[in-house]
Amino acid sequence: MPLGREVPQLLKKRLFYTGRKFNFEVNRLRLPNKAEGEWECIRHPGGALAIPVTPEGKLVLVRQYRFAVSARLLEFPAGTVEVDEKPLETVEREIQEEIGYKAHEWQEIGEFFLAPGYSDEIIYTFLAKGLEKLEEPPVQDADEDIEVVFFTPSELEQAIMDGELVDSKSISSFLLARHLLKC
Predict the structure, then answer these.
(1) What is the pLDDT of residues 80-106, one digit of tens each?
(2) What whole-number distance in Å separates Cα of residue 100 and Cα of residue 50?
């Protein structure tokens, strides 16, 4: 799904911050409808997410601590697309690091903006099948506090409907993949 672009006219760059995972900027812009103003934006290289499915049809997720919301969220394995890395390479790496599996079958499902009101981050979603448990998974990042959990598609849907803390990229990706899963 190509995501169309209508680039606003940059009138003045006011603030720019370079962070570890993303950049933040405040700019004076002229929008395509000719409105002018100052807008803040998080510039992000994008993220890639895998929906790993076991041969038994179970979905492999992680319950991960997220400092920004001071909670453990239920999520599909995902990560930031690194410089010179394709989204598929990102998810291949992430499922090994986060859940200790390698996938032999990959299917691109779609892409979507995560929070377009303040960020340009795109999430690229993939279905991962033909899972093989790694004997020695790679070491996780120091800031990752992760528990691997398994759900059937209907159990995950119920968890979402019950208001369990599931992040938005996982809910959106689950919806995109639902027709491919045995629910």
Answers:
(1) 999 899 999 999 999 999 999 999 999
(2) 13
State the alpha helices, DSSP H only, in the chain.
87-99, 153-161, 168-177
What contacts 24+ positions apart, CB below 8 Å, involve 87-90? 87/46, 87/48, 87/124, 87/126, 88/48, 88/124, 88/126, 90/47, 90/48, 90/124
Query: In total, how many domains does the chain have?
Result: 2
Domain extent, residue 145, equals 47-108+124-180
pLDDT tens sequence across 34-81: 999 999 999 999 999 999 999 999 999 999 999 889 999 999 999 999
Q: Are residues 55 and 92 in the same domain?
A: yes
Give the residue among 156, 130, 144 at the shortest CA–CA distance from 61. 156
pTM over 0.85: yes
Are residues 56 and 76 located together in one domain of the fold? yes
What is residue 179's DSSP assignment?
G
Residue 46 · residue 80 · CB < 8 Å = yes
**Are 30 and 51 contained in the same domain?**
no
- 113 within a domain of the structure (yes/no): no
Planar angle of CA 119, 120, 122, nearest 5 degrees: 115
